[in-house]
Amino acid sequence: MDSAEFHAAVYHVVRQIPPQKVTSYGHVAKLIGMPRHSRHVGQALKWLSPDAAPPVPWQRVVASNGTISSRGPGTDGAQRQRDALAAEGVDVAVSRGGELRVDFGVWGWFPEPGTVDTGVRREPAEGDDELEGEVDEA
DNA sequence: TTATTGACTGGCG
DNA sequence: ACGCCAGCCAATA
User: Is the pLDDT of residue A133 over 60?
Assistant: First the structure.
């Protein structure tokens, strides 16, 4: 899988996160079959253009402990993520230290790998004709 | 070529 | 709860 496919897989999976649900970078990495690429999931979302169509609900991906990474003092990314989540009804708690976090027990979405469509089926082969309907069975 | 850098994770104290 | 560290691996410098 090259970089473009990795991006595509990340976007495809992230787009399947239901509204009012959140998951972690690490879990997205697992879902696309690359469990050690959690950081690159973040990169893929970082590089995502805001006017992508269809939109990618990047706000539904947070760190494995449920917190939203600050991305540095001078940035507002975490704030925008909180706003985006709040806008769709997700309760984002704010700790005393100003740390943003969501309760995975309530909002978590962690399906088993293989139960979601990664958008990457198999290597295209000669005469590999396929009905477009059978992308998933679960 | 090697070194550093992450929208990270998991373990240990 | 919090901090520190090792592992991780593509992109950058």
Answer: no
